[in-house]
Amino acid sequence: MAPPARRLRRTRFTSSYGFWALGIPLVAFLSFIGYMFFYLFRSGVAVISWRFLTQPPTNGMTAGGIWPCIVGTVLVTFVSLVFSVPVGVCASIHLSEYAPANFVTRAVRSAIRSLAGIPSIVYGLFGVALFVSALKLGLSILASGLTLGLMNLPWIIATGEEAISAIPGSFREGALALGATKWEAIRQNVLPYAFPGILTGILLAVARTVGETAPILFTGVTYYTRQLPTSPLSKFMALPYHLFVLATQHEQILKVRPLAFGTAIVLLVTVLFFDAMAFIFRLRSAGANKWQV
Amino acid sequence: MTNDELRMTNTRREATIEAATPGRDWTIDIRQSRIAIEELNLWFGDNHVLKDVSFGIPANAVTAIMGPSGCGKSTLLRTINRMNDLIAGTRITGDILIDGESIFTDTTDVIELRKRVGMVFQKPNPFPKSIFENVAFGLRIHRLGNDIDIRQRVEQALRHANLWEEVKDRLHDNAFSLSGGQQQRLCTARALSVEPEVILLDEPASALDPHSTARLEELIRQLRQDYTVVIVTHNMQQAARVSDWCAFLMLGELVEFGRTENVFTRPRDKRTEDFLTGKFG
Lengths: 293, 281
What we know:
The structure holds two protein chains of two kinds.
Chain A: H1 4-44, H2 50-54, E1 57-58, E2 63-64, H3 67-98, H4 103-115, H5 120-134, H6 141-165, H7 169-177, H8 182-189, H9 191-211, H10 214-217, H11 239-249, H12 253-288
Antiparallel strand pairs in A: 1-2
Chain B: H1 3-19, E1 35-44, E2 47-57, E3 62-66, H2 73-80, E4 90-98, E5 101-102, H3 110-116, E6 117-120, H4 131-141, H5 147-160, H6 164-167, H7 180-193, E7 198-202, H8 210-223, E8 228-233, H9 236-242, E9 245-250, E10 253-259, H10 260-265, H11 270-276
Parallel strand pairs in B: 3-8, 3-9, 6-7, 7-8
Antiparallel strand pairs in B: 1-2, 1-4, 4-5, 9-10
Helix pairs in contact in B: 4-5, 4-7, 5-7, 7-8
């Protein structure tokens, strides 16, 4: 056996080696992200201004702002949530509390997991077939919002079910043993504690919805419109598609590049905002839920 | 019923049970017990957990159900307030009567049953609410009284559970700030709040230290004045300390039932004797 001093040195070496072996990839990854943010901000921050956020594009989209895109993105996201949150939350309650543990339930559950992994462009195509054509909604905010909602649904169901299943069975049993009905036990002693988890899932879904392009591409988003949407059946502009147009489709690509970067910053900040909210909720609920430790 | 009358009934019941020796016919007089368990069989899927269990649980007394792990004692307890309904694949034959009425009829109101038959679980399971709201939970669910009534009833339940003096100044603290023993007494107060007639305790002291256990046992002995108490335990000393009547269960069968002092000093069955002398269990 090696003398203690040598053994100590060797242990120190191995543990510091482990530290660096795991630390370097992390630092490399973070600096890559950091550079991306730095590059984006350096290229686009000059165009960000109150005018940029509140004016429509002008001069063939070589000047002006992105106000209609912000409005459009907010509206479709809203429509998608109006559809997917009630349906998704109810479905997750049913799956975790009421559905019998049999083959059908397992099949439904794994189908939902698979749906969450389907490429968004496929949802886009399905949206054209169902909402635009079959339900005759045309190219509209409603059709796009419902398509996005459909895309969100499996995420909201899966995270909701997980949040509800994480509540200890003793909360349900304790309430039932006092003579609560099953719904009273769930409503009073499960859902309040699962709420932060459910909300986290919804916020992550919002972050994803805001940035999606493919599902709205065929279902209602438009290159350029002079007015803001006037009804749920109007076409609309949206941030991610506007970015795509400015970056690849515009005749004067070099001239509008700063506007593209500016749009990218707005999009990124919006997505990060919702991600951060989700993170904070998760953190705060972990602090409040002492039963989890 | 006065205490003297009660003692007489108990003595009479004891006499009939003693008279039944050496046979296993303890069904005599069961119908006059507070809770009558009659030829109860229970299966979880193919697993035959309780086999022809029959005995009567007297009112205003502590009845202990003891036996080695896996003998079905907790299952038997959870059958009395039908908590086993929650487990898929449960099948039951035989009957349980409370005050002469079956709890397995089509018209049995399980909600009402669980209000009459309160339960304290093995692991303290306070809800992540304040101490006050934990006890008020059952009252609010059953809409028992207005805010003032609820405050009075919460205090009464906490006093009944010997917890009031310890928590009266911090009723709005989170229940998780209490010690394990206090949490278990809080859960008892919660069960008492809706004024049940029967209290079921499922190994209530198994997660507690000796001091907390002693306080809980003191509480259990007090409860018999107002309630019919059934406690499950694998700890025979505990059964000896707290119970008036004692049932010994093994592999799903009732081996012995009688006055606790008789079961402990003059067990009729070899298996009871082996368990009590520590040969297994």
